[in-house]
Structures
1.
Amino acid sequence: MQKTGNRLLAALAVSLMASIALPQTGLAETLRVGINAADITTMDPTRATATADVALVSWMFNGLVRFQPGSADPSKIEPDLAESWSSSADGLAWTFKLKKDVKFHGDYGILTAEDVVFSLTRAKDPKTSSFSSDFAAVKSIEAVDPMTVRITLNEPVPGFLGLIANYHGGNIISKKAAEKLGADFKSHPIGTGPFMFDRAITQQTVHLKAFPEYFRGAPKISDIQFDLIPSDSSRELAFRSGELDLIYGKREQRWVDQAKAWDDAVVDIFAPGEYRTIFLNMAHPPLEKIKVREAIAHAINVDQIVQFVGAGVGPRGCSVVPTGYLGEDCSWAYKYDPALSSKLLEEAGFAKGLQLSAVVSSSSSQQPIMEVIQAQLAEVGIDMQMKVVDHPTYQEQVRKDLSDVVFYGAARYPVADSYLSQFYHSDAAIGKPTAVTNFAHCDAADAEISAARKAVSDEERLKLWSAAQKKIHEQVCGVPLFSLMQVWVRSKAVDYGYELKGSLNLAPPITEQTTLKR
């Protein structure tokens, strides 16, 4: 508690310094945000994967196109750094005309096609990007002239505009800044967004300030104070005492119901849900046995888990593809049947039960749910030994293939290919140079997933995605659970400037239109 108190005092000191500097900007307010993170890992947009990192990145960078603020709907993508674009009839060549006189933060000049080529080439390279697999179909990225970029694909990409939107690898950086700063770019990012990096105090706070030369107009708030407060109760206390204006909430129905009764508070629940799945590592005995995996699938009571989480914040899933994604097919599901589970274990040679290991994050959105699953598995004789670690250690260890059972949740661009490719294609299996998040070492539907990328019609693509989901279901690579929606709480003084229904960056977009009226 002493450490949290020190963190809050330091954050207040930063806020005081910011208020002293206000006359230089002519703006009136600091938006004070609390996030559930102990520290920031990186602010390099091609490496930012943690929720806190992605939130910061989303306020500092732009893509060629963008999701409308408050929307995660790919049908409503609109121009961002590009003023217009066109594509060839076969969908393989895309040409983007850039907006003129878009300025980078600091003294890094005007955006040109060279910056776009540099940024997307960097996003495609696994040495510099965590999202390189998203760009596997990109053949070339070239500057046609100083304000025109052409991207050529090897094959059509479903939802291609999502790749170059203001999300993950689509964010555009300053080539000059990246080359000058090198490894320091991750802690001194340079983008074109409404807010720019100012300063950071390790494990305490990150401070952004308004970019007065933002191409859509100067922001209406002066700066953002981003406090790193991993404790749910400490964030709640800081919000309710008026020290914070916006906090990352606890994604549990009981907590949400309580927060709705707080004075001067608005609870925002929005998409996309981070799709929670239990992945079964087939590279670890005895999980190579199909009957063992089937036994686990029939021992997990998803309805009970959803009741525990709360259907309002954790609606039930059905397919291996997340709820609401284009191509989701719920024709198949594992039925909760503990008697069948016990029978399958006996047939697999484990009549007396078996023991499995699971590396588990201490996060409030993971450990309690894994404890429920642990109790469910114990009822059929499966002893799941949980190694509980902090969230960064969990992320590291599951990517080293150290867990038999992996509980993982993620949001991706909402088309089936993004989830199938990253979680169920063998190219993405942990341990491979092309590894992403295939914790199960699933390989049942490689052919269908690959063929769907080359499909010439939506009808053909949907059929292939459906076939892939069926094969993955039959191989029992994992057990789909629920979508954990985003939960943030704001003061009534905060007006986003739009209606918040969704945000692929998992945090409310803070734009030039956001206002704060204390």
Note: The radius of gyration is 23 Å.
2.
Amino acid sequence: MLNLLRRITQEVTAAESLPAALDIIVRRVRRSMRAEVCSIYLVDGSTSEYVLMATRGLNADVAGTVSLKSDEGLVSLVGRRAEPVNLEDAHIHPSFHYLQGTGEERYRSFLGVPIIHHRQVLGVLVVQHEDKRRFDEGEEAFLITLSAQLAGVIAHAEATGAIANLNANTAPKGFDFRYKGVPGSSGVAIGRGVVVFPPADLDVIPDRRTTDFDEEIQDFYQALEAVRQDIRRASNRISQHLSADEKALFDVYLKILDDNSIAGEVVKKIKEGNWAQGALRHVILAHIGQFNRMDDPYLRERASDLRDLGRRILSHLQEKAPNIVERFSEPSIIVGEELTASMLGEIPIDKIKGLVSVMGSGNSHVAILARAMGIPTVMGALDLPYAQLDKVDLIVDGYLGKIYTYPSEALIENYQQIVDEERLLEEEYETLKDLPCETLDGYRLALYVNTGLTADVARSLDRGAEGIGLYRTEVPFMVRDRFPTEAEQVVIYRQQLEGFAPAPVTVRTLDIGGDKALSYFPINEANPFLGWRGIRVTLDHLEIFMAQIRAMIKASADLHNLKIMLPMISNVAEVEEALALIRRGYAEIKEEGYNVKMPKVGVMIEIPAAVYQVKELSELVDFLSVGSNDLTQYLLAVDRNNPRVADLYNSFHPSVLRALFSIVDQVRGEGVGLSVCGEMAGDPMGAILLMAMGYDVLSMSSTSLPKVKAVIRNISMAQAQYMLNEVMKLSHAEAVTQTMTRLMREANIERLIRPAKTNEN
């Protein structure tokens, strides 16, 4: 059963079009279940009708032309209930409706299961028999399991099929294809897509139209010959250690690359209009799919050999391709399966209009980086056919998490108005730069920034930041291929400290692990967010920790504005050990003759254990800073980088709000500084609630700071506390955001956050 499910899924995944995928499903299901009929009905998004899209057993000629209304027939009953319907005699059921022209009148037994993707019913998979008999539990379970496995494949095939036949260079505007993701960074971007991808990875190569067939074919043949030479050299190098049979394997590889085999297929794809890399991907993955479906284990293993050959050809092709910077002649919308910070680091910032990532969530590090740079971003667009979006006109709606491809002139005009309104808001924010963040009734709130790059300093000061609430030291570690030396770290930290002096600069010790990896210090774990990360790593590697501490303190010489923050604290013992080491480092630097003062030390409150020991921790340190991103993640048991559960990650969940309020309540009167440095602090709605709770400092991206200041300066503390009291009574996260939106509208401050027209789309 499992092997059958695997083979069907693999075949469908490899299909090149939606009709082909659906035909595979009905053909294979009918045969494997020995059913007389198998059909697939898909929901038409515009009419909500169930359209017969593919069938084996009924009249295939009417597929795509006949349909059932949303309240008509057994198929729609399955869809409405979102559960299976299994009948011995379908004709006597009150919901039975004969679909003219299908020839189903002679079939009595009926089993229909819904095809559900992300809680949305995409369609119904149906099997039927002529005789009256109920399908047994095993058959029903098989169909349910298959439907669940294929739902995502069908959703992607639907999305891909929608634009598969459009030529990006010649297709007229006006299709307005819409795809849903999750908001990553607010704002709107209108422009052309550029698909980026990691090197030598066949799976993520996009399709790209070409008319210069001769050049692409020449490049392909040059790459092919380079791989042939590599194989011959490898064969000659180790031939003396191999038997005749083993040496013959290299000859097999050379034959696979022969013009009459894969090479010929790639050339054919190029002549059909795809560039060499895209053509190679199509051919290699199609052959891999065929090998994977074979029953013989030896033949299945050949799929890995084929992938290796494909990757080698691709590597040589990419050596000749223009580098990533050369691809950007104008500001563009960057699209990728999984965008990373290193990818963005290779692209000039002035060439990035917007970002779209298939993987990740609104609190992925790429999204956080995008917010810091003010780039409209959508994450977690799982059904987006990204490989077909190179040089395609796009609109990115970072407010609502939507992407539009081939937008109409009317849609572009609508979104251009939003862009224009955003520009006016930015001009309004500019007038607030030198004004204090103070409520209408005189309450003063300090606004700091989160930084990670040298460039952040000037940008943050220009936005009116009063200090750095979080400097992420892992960033300079991540852009190197080795640990930076103590001397190199001194230079890096000095830039941050000097740039903001005499204002305070909070430097966090190295916070790696989880989703923050160093290529030269790999941490491979089954549950990385529950594993070796943050303070746990650095206390286990004192050479790393002490080099950091010494560098931080040296960098603060004569400035005296350093604060040190410890991440991922889960118990008092960790803080005691770290404090002892910091004092030791301070004493050593002092003895070396540096003019330094013992820095203030604080801890991050970002896991539930710390929330419940916050009073004991406050007795040891000078300040506490809540990392709302991780605290939300751990309280809700939601991986913030997983787009499948992105909707569950919500900092306005009542449990999160109660935990945040509890922290303030526990340390009231203890004399410790209390701040929030997670993304919630940069959300104007979150900033109001955090201020009302009693947090002294909010630290955020420089892009978010003007919005927060504008909102705080236009309400009173009394209004903020009223809002807090109202939402603390609520039991649903959605109710919290809806209530806050209403209260902010009534206070006439919602207009300060986003253009008015964003609510219309």
Note: Residues 177-197+337-423 form a domain with the Glucose Oxidase; domain 1 fold (CATH 3.50.30.10).
3.
Amino acid sequence: MPAKARRLRTKGLLTLATAAACVAAVASVPAQAGDNPTYTNPNAPVDLRVKDLLHRMTLAEKIGQMDQISVVRMQGDCQWSGGDFTQACLKSVLVDNAAGSVLSGGGAGPAVNTPENWAKMVNAVQKYAVTNSRLHIPVLYGVDAVHGHNNVLGATVFPQEIGIGSSWDPALAQATGASTARAVAATGIDWNFAPVADIARDQRWGRYYETYGEDPLLAGTLAASSVKGIQGADGEKKVVATVKHFAGYGEPGNGHDRVPGDVSIRYLQDTLLPSYKAAIDAGAQTVMVNSGAVNGIPATGSHYLLTTVLRKQFGFQGVVVSDWQDVRALQTSYHVAADYPEAIAKAVNAGLDMAMEPYDAQGWSDGLKTAVDRGLVTQKRIDESVSRILRLKFQLGLFEHPYVDASKADGAVLGADTTLARQAADESQVLLRNDGNVLPVPASAKKIVVAGSYADDINDQVGGWTVGWQGVPDGVQEPGTTVLQGIKAAAPSGTQVVQAKTADDAVAQAKDADLTVVVVGEKAAAEGAADSPRPELSADQQALVKSLKATGKPVVTVVIAGRPLVLGDADGTQGLLMSWLPGSEGGKAVADVLFGSYNPSGRLNASWPKDIGNEPLYYQQLPGTNGGPESSYDAAYPFGAGLSYTTYDFASIKAGSASARTKDTIHLSVGVTNSGSRAGDLVVPVYVSQPSSDVLSPSRKLVAFARVHLDAGQSRTVGLDVPPSRLAVTPGDIDGTGPQTVARGDYVFTAGTRSTTVTVR
């Protein structure tokens, strides 16, 4: 969700005292509903409850259910002023316009940002809707909790998705999703706008770090695990996940956020859609639409994406919501609609159920009513969307339990699952250089210099979407452990840790140091503000690292960033650790790797460019007759790269059968050994290639992976399955638009340096 709405502030709303205590749902039933209406019966089947309630609703009430309004439109002057809830504003949004959902965009929290105050704020909204709406319908309350309950000051902040992606650990993605859901639920919120299932292939894009990486299988597997964690979290209150941003959001034409992109249908089907489908197949109950345009059509108005693909091909039956003000954008930005009612009609008829139109509840109500009056939208189509929205509310139990006990929120959120956050940060660390075994830091080291402006900066370490939309606002200090603090705490007794305050000081201190750790990176930001036309380390940081290298003493570079950065003169230090945006426990994780208490296991989920101008860069680049330098896939550090403090061998890869039919799942077994002297976790990827194919295929494509623990000297056989969908491609000529099929022929499966061939007949 973008725009000026989320530039706001951490200051938000004071709450109604009447919502402080939990009360029973649907306190009374309107006389016009009759005695004991079915929709108020918690024991009745959900479909009957939906049908009964829908039958009792007016057209205006149905239209309102399809709108999502920002919470800040109900307080102060009903604009963006903050302050107490305003009765007139609450009435306008929740009663007069019957809004079905409310959200807190980045920064739209309570005046005093604590979990308890968040719970009171949400309870207040819910209380007003349940008490004052004619049929006592609760609202859905949404928030972007994309790496923990990141809007809440003091909540445990996990690594951003790009870091979780480098763990290659589905169990970790599920665990962090569940932890996030428990925190979100404790504050009364039931709708989490996560995970991001987009893939990232252009390092310039500002939302690169919000994805799980560049590979469709890896991203889809982790997004699916996150969905299972969010929706399967234990606790009395349920939270639903959102697969976003459907579809093709990570393909902006010039690398800038929300710029229209043009892709072939083959690329869309074979590369961009699979990650969303995996997350939807995991049971996601809501989907958020791509704000951008694909092939000349805004996704919000695309019947092909929202109905043909999502509903008919994928079988999705849940709620589809737009991103921030995107329905209005069909008129104001894309100019595919002459006026707002026509824009609404395009979106609703395309398959949208709910519009995140946070500015103007009255405008939405009037606009959709006008569209109905003009014959642009049928009431039957509205009933479809409202039925889905109501079904979700019943499934969440909101009619029975719309409130939470706010007094329990602080205990449930503050300091929760910090051990898991440290594990997540540990697993996300990717060691890319370790020349001369400079790491782990030897016990004999007497002096360690820590340099760089990001060494002691927790706010940039956690990244965007933390407390505020663009990251932690000025004047607010996010709790957590910085890299400097982590190193100081982990350094053995007798080792001096010195923080260099300036570049000159760093060079001077390094001359008699055993090791210099220089922490470099980029400033926290989000969406368009995070776009980087030149995704490289800044000149001053390159100069600092170059000067430190010139001292002749060992240097380890730690990168705190949301994307691979061209290092320039900073490349070539003895050690290089990609820490990504590791969250509130990130400083401890960096120290864990530096001092060897954790054996690094992260592997790159994104290709690292050698130089500026190689964007987009991804390992599945197709072959061609090109011959210029770096015109083929030529990364500084390729997809899947990562070092360990032990050694591993891939002993074999075998297929269950040398041949298979096009509809068969191929069963593989990979023999691996930890040939080193310490235990560690090994990522076992299997790639496929085709010696020849009618449609261009990359030199390798990830088709299966696992993460396994191996003790020193231990050997294991890892079983992996490759379903036919992972081999399927869109056949035909340049205009190929048919269904995906598995081509007949030879497929070479590779693990490490070992390979085996399966012939598909």
Note: Residues 1-33 have pLDDT under 50 and may be disordered.
4.
Amino acid sequence: MSTFLNKRPTQSPNQPFVSSVMSEPSAPPSAEHAIIYVGAASLSLIIGTRNESGTFSLLEHLDKPLPMARDIFRTGTITRATVEQAAGILKDYLLTVREYGLPLANVRLYNTNILSEAANHEIFLNRLQVSTGLIARLIDDGDMTRLVYQIGLRMLKKNPELREGHTFVTHIGPGNTRALYFKNGRLAAYSNYRLGIYRAREAVAGADGESAQHLTHLEEHIRGVVDHLAQDYSGYPIDNHVAIGAEIQSVAAELTAAKQGAFRITEDELERFTEKLAVLNPDELVRKLHVHYTGGEGIVPALQTNLALARRFGDEALWIPEGDFQRELMLDLMTASPHSANFQDEVVQAACEIGVRYKTDRKHADHVAGFAQQLFRELQHLHALEPKYELVLRVAAVLHEVGMFISPREHHKHSLYILLQTEIFGLSSSDGEMVALLARYHRRYNPEPNHPTFSDLSREERMIVFKLAALLRIADALDRTHAQRIKTIQLRPEGSRLYILTPGVDDTTVEQIAINSKCDLFREIYGYDILLSKP
């Protein structure tokens, strides 16, 4: 089993908040901003001020129920009533935004990642855009994984006991369950499963609601995926188990007091509490927990799923972050900035473990990735791509030969297939798709408009693939022998030629032949012939 498994399937309002999650354009210092988030069970708004230091002060937080997950997992679409309800809430939120004097340029609109499972999600997104004048962004599974990682990492930093041991972090979301395994504060394994609170609830839902038989069926539905998850992590020592999620975080304070930013709840306490809530009707649940109906629907399934995980792993207790999960997620979106070097290293390490699963040549992959990174940085004035594509290129370099696992013959096509079916930790689905295409085109075969997957890209995205593929081909050719003969390189442009100097290597005939056979794309994109030379 590979280390990184991929199964496709409160903070105080005035407390400074620091995060670095998703890349967005930087904002002026001390400016007020707003985030609107269409979640699984509610539609939320936060308004706040982001300061020069990266801290954030919350000024307003509104939350109104919206049955998105119920619609999606019950009918496969978003109902007309829910669409109209969402449009009405957004209209009210924009009035609030205007009261603060915020221009629309300072407002972002995000949608839950489960929205993509609705057959009419594009119509819904268009309706939101027409209603608000805002571009409706869809958070995909990769984005959500990255956000969950950041929440888990912050919790580890607050608590030395969790940071210094083997800590298992699970997030039970509306449609998926994510598992992250940390060793001494660093991510060591990751997996994603098709089990979620609302997915499970609607799979066994009946007209009679939460009957005893319904709850039994729910437990049976959960058990299969829990057993699968436990099997995947059976060889990992686990000192602590952290449970992240909107529902379990919303009720944790009912059971115990928080210490060092977390609640520690024993399995017995969780079991007794879950049993008490399970016999309540919806009205009783809403009154007891002070939640709205749509949010209350997911609480018992969430507790049952977390309890099933705790039992299966033999946990004495679960650690639960203090705070509102959805608000923290929105704050992460609000304070977004380019990924840190540490996070990029986590992503590359995750890619390396995927390479291990497919028995790639690790030394060659690392060497090509190093050359690719250097080419990207030193030729930035030529390609003019955003910094995030450096990470995409590095991951593609690490994984460009995974198709050899199936067959050396046309392995570039096999690499495309494998990577399109593999979630890569830390990358969005669109970036993961680009990694797959770069692996497809790392050899001398150029992209064609009729090629599957490539043909679905926009003109701008196609040009990005061309630019990155040209760099990857040169990096790969520099280690044509897989022997890492060329240790370092220096770039020296002269006229229409780009000289790549190879200190310590006199005979580069093999590598030059490889470059000559693959550099046509580089020549077309960047206008340079490439020659290897001694310093």
Note: Residues 27 and 50 are 8 Å apart (CA to CA).
